[in-house]
Design brief:
about 525 residues, alpha/beta, 6-stranded mixed beta sheet, 6-stranded parallel beta sheet, 16 helices, 18 strands, about 30% helix, binds nickel (II) ion
Length: about 525
């Protein structure tokens, strides 16, 4: 989606990340081993920068005939790592916090509009992030400018810079994307000074056609776990990683078995499970070996969900996700750092094109509409609502409200509320007074919360798209509300760079009301930014 427009901001941030890595000698040798990330276990999974094409993990076309029909262990196996381009429609998520001796960076992705799966992952990572902060004795406070790459492409391979002190990083990797199925592997790593310990590795799968989802253990029929473990044991024995005479999983409790199977990666031919070997010398991690079990051997032990996931991956069709509206995905602005972009004075002849851009970039916005323009273009106002954007009241025809007597102030607001409701069926939730012109008397009569802004792009002076984007991106902080106008073509042209630039810094775009958790302050109250 418009990746060509990303280059400018991305390059800047990427360069900073490279310099930081070069200057600090981050990633001390050995830390990966301590994390159980032996060269074998992750050869390609975490170090490789080159996104693999779907074909790389997708033998698809009848290669099963050349695959030995027995489980096998492979220390050098490279887990698939698909580029974001193979999974269009995934929405990137980033929750990050930094304090002098503490940092959390959590990166994940959810398919647009598949809310149950998105909600489940959001809740999981909210717990992890907040739990890490609580364990460190601080309140969770989402920040920006922490993680290179920001909220860019979903599960993009930007280095997660390990800070000094205590840190928790959660990174994601797209391991499958075919048909209606997407697979995302999550790695959770905790660092304390120079030592590091993996807390969790889980592969999640979602079928965007049915809404069904689950971790790797859900691929198997309940009760069949020990049959799957027996196949894993066979592979380990074959590779010389387990004694031939005993069952390496005899002492494994059922819950541990499910945890191990949760890290199952599905390819066209095999189900690949990372099995921990002996502990590393420091005791913090375990070496991992990939055990590949031919899918055909597992067929009797798969759940219907597991069979559907494998069928999709083996089928190898391009991943498809519903074309959800730009603002379909709920956002928790207490977990991620939010900012709002707002457009005043429309709808105009430019607004349709702006809606198209926001759809393409999956960016929610808030529009402060003039009643007189809603009356002229009711269908555009309606389309704003269908796309999930928020509507606000910008008076009927843009007077300076402090110059008007009470009845006229009320009429300006009420007539606009009526026009918006008639055109769209929704009630505007807030008022933005023209010119920001408001006083105590006006606040007392408008009957709506008043939303101003803390970042003014001054786009109406037509400074050029680049300047508009630089102001919007550069002057924003957590909770910012950015003022723009869909009355200027230069503003509309700036929108891709505004959206991309804010995301590169780590902002998640939200509507104004979303910033307040769905409930704006009371009528007559004034805000110029979200909670901070
Ligand atoms: Ni205005």
């Amino acid at each position: 989606m418009g990746r060509g427009r990303r280059s400018r901001w991305r390059t800047g941030v990427g360069l900073v990340a490279l310099l930081a890595l070069a200057g600090c000698g981050i990633v001390p040798p050995g830390i990966d081993d301590q994390a159980g990330r032996t060269p074998a276990s992750t050869a390609g999974s975490d170090q490789s920068d080159a996104p693999q094409s779907p074909g790389a993990s997708d033998p698809g076309e009848g290669s099963t005939t050349s695959t030995p029909l027995q489980p096998r262990a492979d220390l050098g196996y490279r887990l698939p790592r698909l580029g974001p381009g193979t999974a269009p429609g995934l929405v990137a998520r980033l929750a990050a916090m930094a304090a002098p001796d503490f940092a959390v960076v959590v990166r994940w992705a959810t398919p647009a509009g598949v809310t149950a799966f998105g909600d489940a992952l959001d809740a999981r990572f909210a717990d992890l992030a907040r739990g890490a902060a609580a364990a460190h004795g601080v309140a969770w406070t989402p920040g920006v400018d922490i993680a290179p790459g920001g909220v860019g492409s979903a599960c993009a391979q930007h280095p997660l810079t390990p800070p000094t002190g205590v840190s928790l990083t959660v990174d994601c990797q797209i391991v499958a994307a075919a048909g209606s199925v997407v697979g995302e592997r999550i790695s959770v790593l905790r660092r304390d000074g120079r030592s590091a310990a993996p807390l969790e590795r889980t592969a999640w799968y979602a079928d965007v056609a049915t809404g069904e989802f689950g971790d790797g253990s859900a691929l198997y029929r309940p009760g069949a776990e020990h049959r799957v473990l027996a196949l894993l044991a066979e592979g380990l024995r074959d590779g010389g990683f387990a004694p031939t005479t005993s069952d390496p999983f005899a002492a494994l409790p059922p819950e541990a078995a499910r945890t191990m199977l949760a890290d199952t990666v599905v390819t066209a031919d095999d189900f690949v499970v990372q099995v921990p070997l002996e502990p590393t010398p420091d005791g913090l991690g375990r070496r991992l070996v990939s055990v590949l079990v031919p899918a055909r051997l597992l067929a009797p032990f798969l759940s219907p969900f597991g069979a559907a996931v494998h069928a999709a991956v083996a089928g190898g069709a391009p991943f498809r996700v519903a074309d959800a509206p730009a603002a379909a995905d709920p956002i928790d602005c207490t977990l991620v750092a939010c900012a709002s972009i707002t457009f005043d004075d429309g709808p105009t002849s430019l607004t349709d094109g702006l809606i198209d851009l926001l759809h393409e970039w999956r960016a929610p916005a808030t529009f402060y509409l003039q009643g007189v323009n809603v009356e002229k273009r009711p269908e555009v106002a309606k389309r704003l609502v269908a796309e999930g954007h928020e509507l606000g009241n910008h008076t009927w025809n843009h007077p300076a409200l402090t110059k008007l007597p009470d009845p006229e102030v009320r009429a300006q607001v009420k007539r606009t509320q009526t026009a918006i409701a008639a055109a769209t069926g929704v009630t505007a939730r807030s008022l933005r007074p023209p010119y920001g012109d408001v006083d105590k008397r006006v606040r007392g009569v408008v009957g709506l919360p008043i939303v101003l802004w803390d970042v003014d792009t001054l786009d109406w002076t037509e400074p050029g798209s680049e300047v508009v984007a630089e102001r919007a991106v550069g002057e924003s902080s957590r909770g910012s509300i950015v003022l723009m106008h869909d009355t200027h073509s230069g503003t509309v042209a700036a929108v891709p760079d505004v959206v991309d630039g804010l995301r590169d810094r780590g902002f998640t775009l939200a509507t104004v009301t979303e910033q307040f958790g769905g409930t704006l302050p009371a009528a007559g109250q004034t805000v110029s930014h979200g909670p901070r």
